[in-house]
Design a protein that fits this description.
This protein is of the alpha+beta class. Helices cover 26% and strands 21% of the residues. The protein is built from 14 helices and 19 strands.
Length: 520
C-alpha cells in the first residue's frame, strides 16, 4: 500500500498490493506458454504498425507472468492530453544511466538491452515542446497493453518521502534510534562492506568465524539486541515514525538546529514484510474501504500497546545510511537518479528495465478521499521495491511532505497499464511461433475406426436423432442381421489371439522335469 525509497541502488520493502492473490506453482510453470496465446486476439488492429518497414526486429517480446496485446496510439485513453515533454525529460534522465551501464542482450527482463537505441536518439534529439516529445515516443516505441495473467488491469499504490522531526543525540523527547547497517549482518555472495545489498532473500549474522544464524527480527531489535554499538544515525520521537520511514525507504529529518538530515534505505534484516494494514483489516479493526496510511497512524497513536504488538507482527526491519542531498534535491531512486514527482514509478526490477515508459490510465483519489480524479500519464520506471511484484504493478512517487503523504496513502487502485516497447522488439512474434497442442490420439483413432452402428457421412437422415442404438428405438422392431444395410465403415482389427503366459509354461516344465527325475 505504501512504499519506501532506496538508498543509491536499492529500495526498502513496501506494503505492496496485499489484496492480490498469489498464484500456485503450477500456474507459474505454465505462464510462459500462455503469454503468446494472449497476444493473438489483438494483433489485427495494429498489424501495420507492428511490422512497419522502418522497424528492425531484435527478437520477440516476452513478459514473464504477463499477457499483452498491441494497441494503437489512438486507442489509448488520454494519450493526446498528457504533457509528453515532462515525461521526455524524465526519460532522458534515465537514459544517462541506461547508456552508461548497458544491459546485456541475454537479460531476462522484458525489454532487455533494447532501450539503448531510443536512449541514444533521446540524447541527441532537440525537443523543446510537447508535440515533438509526443512524436518522439510514437516514432521510437510501440504501445502494448499489459496485465498479469488471469487479470485485466494492473494495480498501483503511492509513496513519498516523509519529513519528520529528529535529533542527532538521544534526548527525553527523541528516544527511538535509526540504525545504520550492523557490521555482523551477512548476505551470501556479498561482502559485508558492499555498497548495496539485495532487498529480498535471507540475511544472517555471524557467530564466531563460521556459524551463520538468521538476523534479529524487529522485536529483538526494538528490545535492544544491537544497541550500544554506535550504529545510531539519529533519534526519532516514536516507533511509529520509524516504521513509516522504513516503509517509505527514505526521510528528511529536521534536526533541532534547523538543518535537515537525509537518510535512505541501505539494507534489511531478511524477514519478509508483513503489511500492518492488512492485519487491521483481517481483525476487523479498520474497514477495508477506509484503509489508508493516515488511518493506520491514527489507530497506532490511539492504541500504543496494540501498536507495539502490531508492529512486531512485521518482523522485517530496515537499516539506513546518510546521503548528502540538499533540501531542494529529490530522493534517489534505485536507478541511482533523483526521482521526479508525478513521473517516477517503482516497478518489479526482476521483470522490467529501469527507464521503461509506462502509460497509466484510470481514476485516482488525488484531490480527496472520495474524488475520482482522471489520471492519464506517461510514467518512467526509475525505482523498485520488494513488495512491487508483477508485470503491471507500480508505485507512484508524489514527492516529499505531508501533502504528498496524504495523496500516496490513499492509493490502492486498479488501473490500465500500457508499456512502451522499443521498435526493435516484435510484440507479435511470440504468438506466431507459439506451438499449438497436438490432436488427442483418441480423436485420431476415432476417425479411423468409427463405431459399427455409426451411419456413414453420406447417408441422409430420415428421422430425428435418437440416443438409442440402431434397431432399438422406441416402438421399432429389431432388424435381422441378415437384412441389415451394409456398412461402409472401416472394419475394426480382429481381436488379438490369446497368448498363454510364458511364466506358467516355464512353471509347468519345471515340475514335469522334476517328476521325470523322480520316476527314474
Amino acid at each position: 500500500m505504501f512504499g519506501r525509497l532506496p538508498a543509491i541502488s536499492r529500495r526498502a520493502i513496501r506494503t505492496g498490493n496485499w489484496l492480490a492473490p498469489e498464484a500456485s506453482a503450477d500456474f507459474y510453470r505454465l505462464r510462459r506458454c500462455a503469454v503468446g496465446l494472449c497476444v493473438a486476439a489483438a494483433i489485427a488492429p495494429v498489424a501495420a504498425q507492428a511490422h512497419d518497414s522502418h522497424h528492425r526486429s531484435a527478437g520477440p517480446l516476452e513478459i514473464v507472468d504477463g499477457k499483452y496485446s498491441p494497441v494503437s496510439w489512438a486507442g489509448i485513453a488520454g494519450w493526446n492530453n498528457d504533457n509528453h515533454l515532462d515525461a521526455f525529460k524524465a526519460f532522458r534522465a534515465s537514459c544517462r544511466a541506461v547508456t552508461v551501464r548497458r544491459i546485456t542482450a541475454v537479460s531476462q527482463k522484458a525489454l532487455g538491452a533494447t532501450l539503448w537505441e531510443p536512449c541514444r536518439a533521446a540524447k541527441t534529439a532537440n525537443i523543446s515542446d510537447d508535440a515533438k516529445a509526443k512524436a518522439f515516443f510514437e516514432n521510437h516505441f510501440r504501445a502494448v497493453r499489459i496485465s498479469r495473467l488471469g487479470e485485466t488491469d494492473g494495480f498501483v499504490t503511492g509513496y513519498y518521502e516523509p519529513i519528520i522531526d529528529g535529533s542527532r543525540a538521544r534526548t527525553d523527547v527523541y528516544t527511538v534510534p535509526v540504525y545504520r547497517r550492523p557490521s555482523n549482518l551477512f548476505v551470501r555472495g556479498f561482502t559485508q562492506s558492499a555498497p548495496s545489498l539485495p532487498n529480498s532473500g535471507p540475511v544472517y549474522r555471524k557467530i564466531g568465524r563460521r556459524k551463520l544464524v538468521p538476523y534479529y527480527d524487529r522485536a529483538e531489535i526494538e528490545d535492544g539486541a544491537i544497541e550500544g554499538r554506535g550504529l545510531e544515525i539519529c533519534w526519532l520521537k516514536s516507533q511509529t515514525d520509524l516504521l513509516f520511514t522504513q516503509i517509505q525507504g527514505s526521510a528528511r529529518v529536521r534536526l533541532e538546529d534547523g538543518s535537515t538530515l537525509r537518510i535512505n534505505y541501505d539494507s534489511y534484516n531478511g524477514y519478509p514484510y508483513t503489511a500492518v494494514g492488512r492485519i487491521l483489516i483481517e481483525r476487523s479493526i479498520v474497514p477495508k474501504d477506509q484503509m489508508s496510511m493516515q488511518r493506520i497512524r491514527q489507530w497506532m497513536n490511539e492504541n500504543p500497546d496494540g501498536a507495539k504488538e502490531l508492529r512486531r507482527q512485521n518482523r522485517s526491519y530496515v537499516f539506513f545510511h546518510e546521503v548528502k542531498l540538499s533540501d531542494n534535491d529529490e530522493a534517489i531512486g534505485a536507478q541511482g537518479l533523483p526521482l521526479t514527482p508525478g513521473r517516477s514509478i517503482a516497478v518489479d526490477k526482476s521483470l522490467h528495465v529501469y527507464g521503461t515508459p509506462f502509460f497509466i490510465e484510470g481514476e485516482l483519489p488525488i484531490e480527496s478521499e472520495q474524488a475520482k480524479t482522471p489520471f492519464h500519464r506517461l510514467m518512467i520506471a526509475q525505482d523498485t521495491g520488494s513488495a512491487i511484484v508483477g508485470p503491471a504493478r507500480a508505485d507512484l512517487y508524489f514527492g516529499a511532505g505531508s501533502e504528498a503523504g496524504r495523496v500516496s496513502g490513499r492509493l490502492r487502485h486498479h488501473m490500465h497499464f500500457v508499456m512502451l516497447v522499443p521498435n526493435s522488439l516484435d510484440p507479435v512474434a511470440r504468438a506466431r511461433t507459439m506451438p499449438l497442442p497436438q490432436t488427442r490420439p483418441s480423436a485420431r483413432i476415432a476417425k479411423l475406426f468409427p463405431p459399427k452402428d455409426q451411419k456413414p457421412a453420406n447417408t441422409p437422415h430420415t428421422s430425428a436423432p435418437s440416443s438409442f442404438p440402431a434397431g432399438e428405438q422406441a416402438g421399432a422392431a429389431p432388424t435381422p442381421a441378415a437384412k441389415a444395410a451394409p456398412s461402409n465403415a472401416t472394419p475394426l482389427p480382429s481381436a488379438r489371439p490369446e497368448v498363454r503366459s510364458m511364466h506358467n509354461r516355464r512353471h509347468r516344465t519345471h515340475y514335469r522335469r522334476r517328476w521325470h527325475r523322480w520316476a527314474r
